[in-house]
Amino acid sequence: MKSDFLIALTQLAAERHLPREQVLSAIEVALASAFKKDNPASGQNISVKLNPNTGDVNVYALKMVVDSVEDPEKEITVIDAQRIKTGASLGDEVAAEEPLPHNASRIAAQTAKQVVLQRLREAERELLFQEFLQHEEDIVSGVIEQSEPGRAITLDLGRAQAILPYEEQVPTERYRKGQRTKVYVLSVRSAAKGPEILVSRSHKNMLKRLFEIEVPEVYNGVVEIKAIAREAGFRSKVAVSATQPGIDPVGSCIGVRGNRIQSIVNELQGEKIDIVSWDEDPKVFISKALSPSEVVAVELFPSDLTAMVVVPDRQLSLAIGKEGQNTRLAARLTGWRLDIKGMTEWEEIREARRLKTAAEATEKVEEETAATAVAVLDVPEAEVQEADAPAANDTQEESPVAVVDAETVEVAEPVAEKADEDEILEALIREEEGREALEAAAAGEEASPSFSVDDLDSFTLGDVGTIEDDEEQEQEQDEEEFVLVPDTPAMAVVTPDAGKIRFAEDLIEDARGGGRRNNRARRGGAARKGPANRGGGRR
Which domains does the chain have, with CATH numbers? Predict the structure, then answer.
C-alpha cells in the first residue's frame, strides 16, 4: 500500500507537469535547508534522503577525510571514514549519519515550504524553456489574449505566453481578442519570469513551414524549396525543384484543383502565392521568376549581378507589377538586380551599342596606326637629320618651280614625271600621225612628216614653218625655246614672249608644216587673227 507521502508527491508532480524525481529532489533540498535553520551553530553540511515508499527521512552530515581532525563537525579521519564508506581515502567526502531532530520548528517548516515552491518554479521554467526551444523555427498555435492597434500582441500558447511584435505583424490582417491563429516561433529566451517567446506572422519561413505541413512531398524531401520571396499580406514567390525524376514540383505544391495551395492561402488570409520552377541557368530562372509576364531576352552582367530583361511593350507594366512589386519579388527570389526594358527601348540600346562599338574599333585602329608610325619614326635624331638632308636637296632640285609675272612664265619639269609625260606625248603623236595618214590617203595627199619626242627639248617655233600671207603666224614663229607644263590634262607650251599657252595638238599640226590649218586658211581665208593683225601683239 502506498504511503500518503508518495501519493502527495505524485499528485504534486502531475500538477506541475514535472517528473516525480525532480519534485523529490526539491523536497530533499528544502528539508536540508530546514534542518540548517534549526541548528545554525553547528555549521555542518547537511543532506537529506527521503524514502518515497515509506516517507522516512534520513539526515546526513557531509565530512571531509583528513589525516588529523581539527573540526570534528566538518572533518573525519581515514579510519573512521572507511568504517562508513569502504575504500574512502584522503580528500573524499563521506556522509555521516547525524541524530538530528525530525520535528522541525515553525520557522524551519516555513523555510522548507518556500524552498520547495522556489525549486518547483525553477524546474517548471526550465522545462518550459526546453520544450519551446524544440519548437523554435516552427509553427505553433495560440489564442490572442491582448490586442491593440500599433502595439505588440500577447498570445496564450497554453503553458506559456508569446509576444507578437508590431514589426512581425501583417499589415493587411486584423487581430481580435480570443482569435486562434498560427504563428512562427522566431526565438526562445530564458528569463526570470519564464521563457520569453517571440513569434511572427510575416516571416518568409512561415510560408515554408506551411508548405511542409500541407504538401507531403515537401515534408519528405521529394520536392525542395530553393528560395522564397515574400511581401507579407500582398504577394509571395516560391521557387521549387524536384530531387527525383518524374516529379512535377509545381503541380505537387498546387495539388488537385489547387486544394493544397488554397489551404495555405486561407491561412495567410488571401495572400497571393506564385510557384515557379527553379533552374540552374540564371536566364531561364529569371524568365520564370517574372511570371505571369512573357520574357523575350535576358542579358546578364555578372560583374555586378545585374540582368537586363526584355519584355514585349504591351506587357511592360505586367512585368514590373503594381509599384514594382513583381520585379522586386523576382529580384529577391533570383538574387539578381533586374532592369526591365521594352522591345522598342532595347532596340535603341542595341543600335547605340553597335555605333559605340564601331567607333571604338575605328579609334583602336587609328591608335594602332599611330603607334606603328611612332615605332617606325623612333630612330636616333642624328640618323634622321642625315636621312633628311639629301632628301631636302633632291626635293629642291626636282620639285616644280613656277615664276609668274606679267612677261614670263617659267616651269621646271620634275625629273621623276618627265619619262611618263614623254611616253604620253609620243602615244598622242603616233595616234595623230595615224589619223593624218588615213586622211591623206583619202584625199590623195602625202602624209605629213613626223618627228620624235626627243626633239621637243630643242623644238622652236622657227622649226614649225610659216603661214603664207599671215602676219600673226610670222610673229608667233620667234626662235625661242618652250617647255612642257606638268600635271595638266593636255601638254601645254608656254611662250615667254607671248605670255599665252598653246597645246600639244596645235604644235603637232604646226610641226607637220601647216597641215590642215594652212589648207583651211587657203580654202576659207586667212587664219585666226591674233593681236598682231589688230594692231600689234603683246610683248
Answer: 4-128 (3.30.1480.10), 135-200 (2.40.50.140), 411-524 (no CATH)
